[in-house]
Each structure stands twice: as C-alpha cells, then as structure tokens.
Amino acid sequence: MKSKVLKIALATAFLTGAAPAFADLIYKTGTQTSGTGLGNVSTVVTVQDNGNGNKQNGTESGCVTYTGGNPATPAETCPSGLGLEGGDNHSGNAGNNTYYLNTIGGLTSAGQLGFVVNVSESGQDNTATLTDLYLSLFRISDGTTRYYQYTGPDLMLDDSGGIGQSGTHFFVLDDDQAADAAGFCSTLSNCVVGGGIQFLNGTTDATPETVYVGAFKRDNPGNPGGEVPEPGSLALLGVGAMAFGAMRRRFTAKK
C-alpha cells in the first residue's frame, strides 16, 4: 500500500491544481459488455481473500510474474518495492496468466495496453477499495522488466456488473507512458505482460475480483477487439478508479 505521505501529497496537489502532468495508469470509463465462455478474455489476475484456502488475512492481493517458459504458468509472486503482499491468487490456473503481447487481440503497439478490473462484491455493500495496481512488461531479449503503477489515492470501486460482465472501469497508459511502453516493447513477440492488484483490508467479502488485459483507445476505451468477459465462477473484472492526481512512478528491474 502506498504511504500516507504520498497520498496526502497527491490529494494536496489535486486540490491546489498542481497535479502532476503524467500518471502511470489513469482511469477511463468504458462500455459494459456481456459475454460468455471462460477464457474469452486475457485474464491476468484473479484474487479472492475469503474462502479460497489462502492466507485470508483480510487484505485481498495477488500478482503474476513471468519466469520464463510458458506464460500461462507464471509465478504468483509480487515484486519487491511495489507495496503488494500477494498470496490470494484464486485457485485454478485459468484466472492467473501472463501473455506474449503478440497474442493479445487487436494490439498493434504496447502503448495500447490497459487493464479492466471487475469488482464482484454483491455479498456486502457492492464495493471494494483499491489500494494498488500495476502492469508489468518483461522484455525477453535482455531480461528487463518495466512497471507501470497506479499511484493515486485509494479508490472505492463499485460492482459495475458482477459475474459475466466486463465492468466499466479501465486503467490505461497516458501518452507519455504509452510512448515509453511502445519503445520498450517495439517487437511485441519479445515482451510478456503481467501485473498485480491489492484491495484495502476488510473491503472485499464476496466472489473473486479479476483483472484482464486488452488493447484500448486511451481517449475512449471499450472492450478489446474480439474479446468478451468471462462468466460464471470467476467473477469478472472491473477495476474502477477515479484517478485524480495520479503521480508518475516507474520502476525498472533487471532479472
């Protein structure tokens, strides 16, 4: 979780009109889309803190990290330094994956990448509070990883559709970060996308939250080309966020 000092600084910058010009991941509202068929979207992370046999300490958190070999079997670990504790990846590999960029439908540039998160919290007050979210790009040729992280204040996200819906909340790269990602992954087949998400302790209480990756227009994101949301047992993702005053923070790590 981000530090209290950082959040106060961000809130102050927003209120005084001095918000940073760029953010790593920014919020956009997109189109809700119904769909059927598990696996019809590129699901990155599926997390559930309660009733899943995981650590169940009240903080719902999970990540996927590419470790070489088959992207469909990533490590379910969170990188150090990003503030996510991990440990709540939903059992069943279908909901936790990394992907070669050239396998993501409609993607022609890494700058088009974005996340959608679906909050499925009908069992309580239909909301969950997001504290952390990041998108990672691993470049195979030199083993370098780039991170694009949401760094704004905690966000209370509503259940915008639940099971079988895409959600209406999108996190996309801003212009500066999109250019950076496109340059870093100029060859799509040379890069693998992963990521992670975390919610405030005690704010999740129902079925799993899910994050999927797709290709989006940054000014007007919608469902990625040719992809529809997962249904049924894996409550689809929709991570909602009203990113006011997001601050740029990019990490580069060598494997």
Topology:
Elements: H1 4-15, E1 26-29, E2 42-47, E3 61-64, E4 99-100, E5 113-118, E6 127-139, E7 144-150, E8 155-158, E9 169-172, H2 175-184, E10 191-199, E11 209-215, E12 250-254
Antiparallel strand pairs: 1-9, 2-11, 3-10, 4-10, 5-9, 5-11, 6-7, 6-8, 6-10, 7-12
Task: Summarize the entry for a quick read.
The chain is mainly β. Helices cover 9% and strands 28% of the residues.
Q: How does this structure look, described?
A:
The protein has two helices and twelve strands; from the N terminus they run αβββββββββαβββ. The chain is mostly beta strands and 255 residues long. The strands form two sheets. Strands 3, 4, 6, 7, 8, 10 and 12 form a seven-stranded antiparallel sheet that branches. The longest helix has 12 residues, at 4-15. The chain is globular, with a radius of gyration of 16 Å.
Describe the main β-sheet briefly: 7 strands, antiparallel
Taking all residues together, what is the mean pLDDT? Answer: 75
Strand % is 25-35%
Number of helices, counting only DSSP H or I runs of 4 residues or more: 2
What distance lies between the first and last C-alpha atoms, to the nearest angstrom? 24 Å
Shape estimate = globular
The helix/strand class is mainly beta
Radius of gyration based on Cα positions: 16 Å
The unreliable regions are: 1-22, 223-255
User: How many domains would you count in the coordinates?
Assistant: 1
Helices and strands, in order, run as HEEEEEEEEEHEEE
